[in-house]
Amino acid sequence: MGRALWINPTVGVSGDMLLGALIDVGADEGPVRTALESLALPGWELTVGDTRRRGLRCRFARVTTETADEPRRWSEIDATIAGADLGSRVALGARETFRRLGEAEAHRHDVGIDDVQFHEVGAVDAIVDIVGCWAALDALEVETVVAAPVGLGAGTVDTAHGLLQHPAPAVMSLLEGFPVTAVETSQETATPTGVALLTGMVGEWGPCPTGKVIRSGIGAGGRDLETHPNVLSMMLIDTDDLPQVDAVVIETTVDDVTPEILGHVIGRALSAGADDAWLTPVVMKKSRPGHQLRVLCAPGLEPAMIELVASETGTLGLRTYAVAKRVFSRSFDQVLVDGEPIRIKVGPHGAKPESADVLAVAEATGRSARAVAAEAAAQWAVEQKE
Length: 386
Hints:
Order of helices and strands: EHHEEHHHEEEEHEHEEEEHEEHEEEEHH
Radius of gyration: 24 Å
Number of domains: 3
């Protein structure tokens, strides 16, 4: 059964909220606790139970420790996770989460990653949250993780470095390149641990996937705020047997438009929301070489796409016809090549390294993109057999 997990962090996210929501939506506590116990960390206890936030029933996951935790360096945390008896997806996800946390803190404090003192994020409770969340996600056996934009408040937060504004500097660094939305509150809504976990788990950002809802879950934050429910919600969705999605194809055939303009039209169509756009070489009347331009889009975009194609190409006519799309489920996994992460897009009939990640690693290492892609694909295939 194809499964997708849709996460709604529009009023915030933290590590304990995410762990509580994952358990509430159906993750078995057994594998989660087994993974955590393999870390061999000093005295800690994970308590999971029901509570209420602004009248909503939700699940909390609270970590308590017996003694105060000393600051830890990134290399110590990484070694602890690497030495634990964890599955490859859990170990890779947790290690990558802490690496990104370390890079964000190092960037903001202008120091090396192993010179960062992990106060908040390096405490035992944060290690438990991060490994626990990855173990819970693995237990759900989802193929795709999708999330709405991250909700951010504006105010101040007390940290080991003193009073800082929030979003915290590390949160702002971690969110670069990801969608956000405003929350009308002076409270902290997104923590570094929660954001690092979310941005590492999510493969797509946007509305919930099409399918049948299997179960919903709500995770509770540590406080019951007056301004908004301090919760993180999610839904587990069966994406098999997807219904047909109506779409429209707009096409025209031209022999007097330059390749530069045609490429420009494709770029504009995709930026404006088209599902796809492409060119096909054709031989037209009087044996003239030309191109057939096609744009695939939702029915609601048809008028705008017709205007775009007509105004940019100067065509004297075009054709439109309805088609039915069937969208297959997809998910994202991740491997490390030369110490750099490469996302793997996984579909029901194959898997492929993400081109942007491959090119970034190739540029950083001086290797050919083809070699990097081949290594990433081979490494992912090996990990699936373990």
